[in-house]
């Protein structure tokens, strides 16, 4: 599933019309029919439906939806929210068809809000991706009224008034219960501040050729088919050496568990051999608990790692660093020296990110892949901006950081954005609020480390790891756990089921 900006969607429409020859009226017919089909699945035969049609092609879709529902026998009428002379082109064509089929259209007079309350379903085709700036009157007041009074609101393509793109914090938008997005979801369906306006959403296909998407966007949602297509199978004659030898550096007297979770998750996710490099005290605590891992003792100052041991990374296929190590200056020296010298992929998480903040040039200059896995607070810290600024434009900030610093960025959150150093972006939607608990990120880092060593590209490894991590939490919530009680260590146990589902 591709994700588009408004401009990309217009380019895709344009490509379909000029290069392929698909007619605009036909695309509108397809859009309206596809949405009407979905609407029939969520309304009752006895529901009274009011379609609100605006001036652009979104309104045009509304007329097709109204005609299709009328033909199926639903009680449907249209409230046209702009003057007659504003309905032009393909939308006018479909308005005429609706009228000729016996459809009734009322003109919005700035009041007549009784139609909003006397119908149990409102279909919002007021405005789509052509929305510019904040919604003007009288539409702004109408939208406020709908949000207050309407019983069930179904938006067409995008909740009216909501920006399609990131970077826009001020708007007046319909609060939809459902949104049927046309062709592909828009970026705003994946942002913390705009996604709630969509309600439940799903895409509908309108016959736009996949070539049109491939040519115009490189952003998409990673799904289970992508995992199945990229995760290598295990061969009967495999040996442990083929599944990677990984090193996890972290832990401290205050946070030993973070290291334990990364180690266990990495082994459960398929790593061949995993070593935990940490303080003597942490090794003592973990070794009986996580018996499949091996351990390497590093030097410490008062229970926190320092840079006095000469850590050899020879023979390791990948390294993860940062979990539970704390923010002592002595530990920072260790992190920076390893980032500088590691001749293998390195994953930097948690406190490791804090320690590299002042030395991003070291990352940019690395000749081997670097992966950073920040949550929004850590990413904002690296960028020197606020979390709010970051979350307004997470795609842009991630992309600019990844390209500038020659690194892979896994920006974690309700929706996780994975960006390659070339700027390719993937969104992971698996996972749920049960993961909003200490340790979830340490588990993810362990899975990432394992995936990187399993014969996929680094980018595929990151996408697969994020999907599998979130899917484990989703399966656990659907079976025996709740958002409240789920623990990071449950997510490790849940991996077993996810791997069975995938294979
Ligand atoms: N090629 C096509 O015909 C297709 C069009 N589609 C539909 O077309 C939509 C995009 O159509 P348009 O480009 O015509 O744009 P819209 O229908 O989203 O809206 C444009 C209209 O809104 C008005 N407007 C913009 N900002 C406003 C504001 N702040 N306050 C009040 N009014 C404002 C403009 O004056 C213009 O009349 C998509 O969202 C989708 O629903 C899809 O059906 C796909 C195919
Ligand atoms: N509400 C949520 N919905 C989906 N995933 C979530 C949610 N909250 C957290 N997560 C996931 O849980 C993990 C949390 O990572 P992080 O914040 O680093 O945790 P910690 O540092 O405590 O280990 C990330 O993978 C994130 O995407
Ligand atoms: K709309």
What can be said about this structure in brief?
The chain is an alpha/beta fold and 503 residues long.
Strand order of the largest sheet: 8-19-18-17-16-15-14-9-10-11
User: What proportion strand?
Assistant: 15-25%
Number of domains: 2
Bound small-molecule species? ligand NAX, adenosine-5'-diphosphate, potassium ion
Category by helix and strand content: alpha/beta
What is the name of the CATH class of the largest domain? Alpha Beta
- Estimate the helix proportion, in percent: 40-55%
| Largest sheet composition | 10 strands, mixed
**Number of continuous helical runs:** 19
The tally of beta strands, per DSSP, is 19
CA-atom Rg in angstroms: 26 Å
CATH topology of the largest domain: UDP-N-acetylmuramoyl-L-alanine:D-glutamate ligase
Uncertain runs with pLDDT below 50, 5 residues or more? none
Give the overall silhouette: elongated
Per CATH, which architecture of the largest domain?
3-Layer(aba) Sandwich
The residue-averaged pLDDT reads 95
Distance between the termini: 21 Å
Topology:
Blueprint: H1 6-20, H2 24-42, E1 48-53, H3 57-71, E2 75-80, H4 89-100, E3 105-107, H5 114-118, E4 121-125, H6 139-149, E5 152-156, E6 178-182, E7 200-204, H7 210-216, E8 219-221, H8 224-230, E9 245-249, H9 256-268, E10 273-278, H10 280-286, E11 294-297, E12 300-301, E13 304-305, E14 318-321, H11 329-341, E15 346-348, H12 351-356, H13 360-364, E16 370-372, H14 376-383, H15 387-392, H16 394-404, E17 408-411, E18 416-419, E19 425-428, H17 440-452, H18 458-479, H19 488-502
Parallel strand pairs: 1-2, 1-4, 2-3, 4-5, 5-6, 6-7, 8-19, 9-10, 9-14, 10-11, 14-15, 15-16, 16-17
Antiparallel strand pairs: 12-13, 17-18, 18-19
Helix pairs in contact: 1-7, 2-3, 2-4, 3-4, 8-18, 9-17, 9-19, 17-18, 17-19, 18-19
Residues 58, 124-128, 155-158, 160 line the site of potassium ion.
